[in-house]
Specification:
The complex is a heterodimer of chains A (542) and B (235). Chain A is an all-alpha fold and 542 residues long. Chain A contains 18 helices and no strands. With 235 residues, chain B is mainly alpha-helical. Chain B has one domain: Cytochrome c oxidase, subunit III, four-helix bundle (Four Helix Bundle (Hemerythrin (Met), subunit A)). The chains are: A mainly alpha (542), B mainly alpha (235).
């Protein structure tokens, strides 16, 4: 792709893509921008593998008795979908690509604090991914992405150890990324870049990094214990020989609930940038949006018990976890209200990234509000482990995180590649994805409410209409994801040259040429004004 | 590789005084030192949460199966454990002295204290593996070789003692793994010091390794009483 750009005479300037050539210059790079692209390629591959599993599940569920695969294969498909999408796509999605690219640029630094650790994190990710893919291809796993004991430790005969090893290794790539971001944001800010002058994206990256660093090691140890129990046949989690299976659920959800916020917080950061840019207005309540990211990260560590309302956890613990889960709604709602207030009286333009951002706000609100049904002790007993849960977290993770990820990719694509994509196609894709998404997952709320349990390969005939609707939506959604893949790749070669600031956005990353030079800025920037100076009359920054 | 290339291209533009030890992404050596130290502290926070999972498991099972955990604690060799604690604390002292020597730029003293820390670390591991060896002979290794003598159980159900031994091996094994990594790290520091790569201006790497070493010591300070001492041995 770098050769394509070099052919155009306008682009004779040196930048990070043409600074050096050859496969080695990519595989041994320590440039955060190149590592971001390495991640972008790898997680896109994982996204399509995980997506393929989802496509097969939705095809299978067209008929009540199952249309496509054996029930055992179906179990492996949903496990594959969950493991790949959660650990290998959603967790690294925004932090490892956009975060890697933007964190140093937004604070006016030349690179992250530890560039070699950053590269190492990508190799760790690739190793973990390769082991997991090996396990999934050589026979698969059928425990679900949750690996609940004693199912995972004693009953299934599939590749649990290899998969948990892959997840374990992959965890260290998250930890390294989080560590790098925290140190970079603390120690590498350019002169004048105070905390309260940082773009909101950085606040959300910081909050995400804290969760990376504090939650990921706990899943790592849980995975090791699962592996040890399977290997040595000792009873750490198996109740038959004195173990406590609920302990596994505690360890698992101590990571896996905060990890939900690892997925959504970066999305919130992206949306904060998009809404302010396309409303051409300062964010309403900057400091509230910033601190609500930290509040979400903090509270996220104390709500894991709401996954275990029906798992023999004490009722009093249930009360507390329920109340704390409601508390998380407060900072989340602050964000939604502030984005909405930012739009009020803004001069809004509906370019493709903004369509994703607006989609995010609506879908995240839906997903968040239905989360409250699940945080209530009484309704959760009815809805637990039904399609209602599936619909709820897909509204957050796909309607929220993936929409924001795509919005962010569309927003910073001109900065990353120096090229513009076709705006008409991009708007069409955003619309197709929004429609396809709702058609896929809204029926699942209804299915869950009517009592259809998750993770079953067959279902009663009366659920067929809603299931067919959902599968039809999935096919539209799948098409929607393919369109950007095509026109974004096309734009690298044929797209018009973007210029340094195609959106008229504020922020340090827009003051340097596109694509940026290897050291990001010609000289270290000095920051003298508040962020998002949209209200003032426009003056040229380039 | 791109680091060195970028560093040279940048030296002209920003007019910083460029020390060979300074990585290109930092403005000055002080910023680099702070970033290194802070990075290690953040890493130690991760490590703490990494161990917290097994500590939680230990506490829960100890409250569920007190008799099994008391019996398990009795089969451990408390004298050996105490000796290991003493050795490790001594190594913490020599490590602190090594950091002090590095800050002074005293190469001979640095090499001396680094190598004594390494030797003490290896001694600790030697004693640890001796104890593992004894446990194998007493058939107290869960999963692989667990057939304890009847009086070792002290009337507790066998699987609860096995669970204790599980946590014993898991926690001390994890700790030993960290020791091995730490010894490797100090070995690298010793080689760097030998080659004269560590100066009073640029001693940050020794300081950071020292933080890691002390952290691993502190983990043991919790493991020793939890595993060896709280079985009601001295009632």
């Amino acid at each position: 792709m770098s050769t394509a750009i070099a052919e155009v005479p306008v682009e004779s300037r040196m930048h990070y893509l043409n600074a050096s050539y050859g496969i080695k210059s990519w595989l041994f790079t320590t440039d955060h921008k190149r590592i971001a692209l390495l991640y972008l390629g790898s997680i896109t591959l994982m996204f399509f593998i995980g997506g393929a599993a989802a496509v097969m599940m939705r095809l299978h569920l067209i008929e009540p008795a199952g249309a496509l695969v054996q029930p055992e294969t179906y179990n492996k498909l949903f496990t594959m979908h969950g493991v790949i999408m959660v650990f290998f796509f959603l967790v690294p999605s925004i932090p490892a690509t956009l975060g890697n690219f933007l964190v140093p640029m937004m604070i006016g630094a030349r690179d992250l604090a530890f560039p070699r650790l950053n590269l190492l994190s990508w190799y760790v990710y690739i190793t973990g991914g390769a082991i997991t893919l090996y396990a999934l291809i050589s026979g698969g796993v059928d425990t679900g992405w949750t690996f609940y004991a004693p199912l995972s430790t004693h009953y299934v005969t599939t590749h649990v150890i290899a998969t948990s090893l892959g997840v374990f290794i992959n965890g260290f790539s998250s930890i390294l990324t989080g560590l790098n971001f925290i140190v970079t944001i603390h120690k590498m800010r350019a002169p004048g870049m105070t905390w309260k002058r940082m773009p909101l994206f950085l606040w959300s990256m910081y909050a995400t990094s804290v969760i990376f660093v504090l939650a990921t090691p706990v899943i790592a140890i849980a995975m090791v214990l699962i592996g040890a129990e399977r290997l040595l046949h000792v009873g750490i989690f198996d109740p038959a020989i004195g173990g406590d299976p609920v302990l596994f659920q505690h360890l698992f959800w101590f990571y896996s609930h905060p990890v939900v916020y690892i997925m959504i917080l970066p999305g919130m950061g992206v949306v904060s940038e998009l809404v302010t840019c396309f409303a051409k207005k300062k964010p309403f309540g900057y400091i509230f949006i910033a601190y609500s990211s930290l509040a979400i990260a903090m509270i996220s560590f104390f709500v894991w018990g709401h996954h275990m309302f029906v798992s023999s956890q004490s009722v009093y613990a249930g009360f507390i976890f329920s109340a704390l889960s409601f508390a998380v709604a407060i900072p989340s709602a602050i964000k939604v209200f502030n984005w909405t207030a930012t739009l009020y009286k803004g001069s809004i333009s509906y370019q493709a990234p903004m369509l994703y951002a607006l989609g995010f706000i609506g879908l995240f609100t839906m997903g968040g509000l239905t989360g409250l049904f699940l945080a209530s002790l009484a309704t959760d007993v009815h809805l637990h482990d039904t399609y209602f849960v599936i619909a709820h977290f897909h509204y957050i993770m796909v309607g929220g995180a993936v929409m924001a990820y795509l919005g962010g990719i569309h927003f910073w694509w001109p900065k990353i590649t120096g090229r513009l994509y076709h705006d008409g196609w991009a708007r069409l894709a955003a619309l197709v994805i929004f429609v396809g998404f709702n058609l896929t997952f809204f029926p699942q709320y209804m299915l869950g409410y009517l009592g259809m349990p998750r993770r079953y390969a067959v279902y009663p005939a009366e659920f067929q209409v809603l299931n067919v609707l959902s599968s039809a939506g999935a096919s539209i959604l799948g098409m929607g994801y393919l369109i950007p893949f095509v026109y974004l790749l096309w734009s690298i070669r044929y797209g018009p040259v973007a210029g340094s600031n195609p959106w008229g956005a504020k922020g340090l990353e827009w003051e340097t040429p596109s694509p940026p030079p290897t050291d990001n800025f010609e000289e270290t920037p000095r920051i003298t004004e508040e962020p998002y100076g949209y209200a003032e009359p426009e003056h040229a920054h380039v | 590789m791109s680091e060195s290339a970028a560093g040279s291209s940048l030296a002209g533009t920003s007019g910083r005084s460029v020390s060979p030890a300074l990585h290109h992404q930092f403005e000055d050596i002080e910023q680099q030192r702070e970033a290194g130290n802070f990075g290690m502290w953040v890493f130690l926070a991760t490590e703490m949460l990494f161990f917290s999972g097994v500590f939680t498991g230990y506490i829960i099972y100890r409250s569920l199966y007190y008799s099994g955990f008391a019996a398990g604690s009795h089969v451990l060799e408390v004298d050996l454990g105490a000796a290991m604690t003493a050795v490790l604390l001594a190594s913490s002292f020599t490590m602190a002295m090594a950091v002090h020597a590095a800050r002074q730029g005293n190469r001979a003293m640095l090499l001396g204290f680094l190598s004594s820390t390494i030797i003490l670390g290896i001694a600790f591991l030697g004693m640890k593996f001796t104890e593992y060896f004894h446990k194998w002979h007493e058939q107290l290794v869960p999963g692989l070789n667990f057939h304890p003598a009847v009086d070792a159980l002290r009337g507790a159900p066998e699987h609860t003692v096995e669970l204790f031994m599980c946590f014993y091996f898991f926690m001390t094994g994890l700790h030993a793994l960290h020791m091995i990594i730490g010894i490797g790290l100090l070995g690298v520091m010793a080689i760097l010091a030998w080659r004269g790569k560590i100066s009073a201006e640029h001693y940050n790497r020794v300081e950071v390794s020292g933080l890691y070493w002390h952290f691993v010591d502190i983990i043991w300070i919790y493991l020793f009483p939890l595993l060896y001492l709280i079985g009601g041995r001295y009632k």
